[in-house]
Design a protein that fits this description.
Order of helices and strands: EHEEHEHHHEEHEEEEEHEEHHEEHEEEHE
Number of strands: 19
Distance between the termini: 38 Å
CATH topology of the largest domain: D-amino Acid Aminotransferase, Chain A, domain 1
CATH architecture of the largest domain: 2-Layer Sandwich
CATH class of the largest domain: Alpha Beta
Number of helices: 11
Strand content: 25-35%
Shape: globular
């Protein structure tokens, strides 16, 4: 089985890791030479998919599946046009992505469906969350505490708030859920817990989620409702916040997510890439059996610098040198890292599992203490550290 992953940053790391776990031969393509996912793939080609379409066509003809792992509109259009012309199996839903990649279109969809969402400004008070209209995930998101801060940020950064999504800031835990779909059939997977840093960037994912069966069913119902209304082919994820015992929808993305699919795989054994292969190559959606045993998992990002260890958002991985896959890394079951004895600055994604939640939480602390002790790191930071 040969697959091509296009894009070597966060989504690329996710796709390559899951491809390796499936036992596939993975080719990575990116226009930049030393992207993080390069060190994980079996092979790498430096190529600009918006320009080198003849070379790309020759490469893709030998592939069982092509996985776009980027959010560049020109690159996605080039891949879609080539796949349509040559009938290559491209794991991408252009129409669903067009809706979910716009926070304004997404919010309009939520309102049309009557889904519970945070109240919008100016009908709500401060603090608020401001989201740029066309960026993915946590990019560009900021918390504004009062009217003076909003006036200040608009003048300093020349922000046209008419194009931004501005909502009330809600307290509560956040959760993510993936859905796969084909021809009106949809399957939701395992919800996971999302932990963020001070920039609202995901620093840690935990499974299984501590949701009641009623809330799990409600979460799945919301996710499938959205998938039905965008006629999803492939995969999307949905993020919610639990506020006063009600799940409120924050955002959706119809593309391969980063982080959460790996956690779902480690906890349940379900590999989302294998589901995408069935959908886009075999053209069927497999039956996903009920999950009997969910293994506890903690998946988190750390950055090490002279004298300091910091748990931080996933942006530190997107900025890393090419990563390597290792097992038993200072006590962690698995790790994706650019650690090198010749560099005093390095990052790692730690993948920890255990028989019980207590086991995996204790392992988390042991691993971090081992790293701190090994490198003599006096300073430690983990914003919003709850496990």
């Amino acid at each position: 089985m040969r697959v091509a992953v296009v894009g070597g940053k966060l989504q690329g790391v996710e796709a390559v890791y899951l491809g390796l776990q499936a036992g596939w031969k993975v080719l990575l393509i990116d226009r930049t030479k030393n992207v993080p996912a390069r060190g994980l793939a079996h092979s790498f080609i430096q190529l600009d998919v918006t320009k080198d379409t003849k070379d790309l066509s020759d490469i893709f003809k030998d592939m069982n599946l092509i996985i776009p792992a980027l959010e560049n509109d020109n690159a996605l259009k080039s891949l879609k046009d080539l796949a349509r012309k040559k009938r290559f199996p491209l794991a991408f839903d252009e129409a669903a992505y067009a809706t979910t990649s716009s926070k304004q279109k997404s919010d309009s969809l939520f309102n049309k469906l009557g889904l519970p969402v945070p109240q919008t400004w100016p009908d709500c008070g401060f603090p608020v969350i401001m989201k740029p209209p066309g960026l993915s995930g946590s990019q560009g998101i900021r918390k504004i505490n009062n009217r003076e801060e909003m006036v200040s940020i608009r003048s300093k950064e020349d922000i046209d708030i008419g194009n931004w999504v501005i909502q009330e800031f809600l307290e509560g835990p956040s959760y993510s859920l993936e859905v796969v779909g084909l021809n009106g059939n949809f399957r939701s997977l395992q919800p996971t817990i999302i932990k963020v840093d001070t920039m609202f960037d995901c620093k840690r994912v935990i499974a299984p989620a501590n949701l009641s069966e009623i809330l799990k069913n409600r979460f799945a119902e919301i996710a499938v409702t959205v998938a039905e209304n965008i006629n999803l082919k492939g995969i999307m994820d949905i993020e919610v916040i639990l506020h006063k015992n009600e799940l409120k929808v924050l955002e959706i993305d119809a593309r391969l997510p980063s982080q959460t699919p790996s956690v779902v795989f480690k906890s349940t054994g379900i590999n989302i890439l294998e589901l995408l292969y069935d959908i886009f190559n075999r053209r069927n959606i497999p039956v996903i059996p009920p999950i009997a045993n969910e293994k506890p998992v903690i998946y988190e990002h750390i950055r090490v610098s002279p004298n300091a260890l910091e748990v931080s958002g996933e942006h530190i991985i997107s900025e890393a040198r090419p990563l390597r896959y290792q097992t038993d890394f200072f006590g962690a079951d698995e790790v994706l890292t650019d650690f090198d004895p010749d560099h005093r600055n390095w990052v790692a994604t730690l993948i920890l599992t255990g028989r019980t939640k207590t086991d995996v939480v204790q392992k988390h602390y042991r691993v971090l203490e081992t790293i701190r002790g090994t490198f003599g790191l006096r300073d430690y930071s983990d914003p919003h550290p709850g496990l």
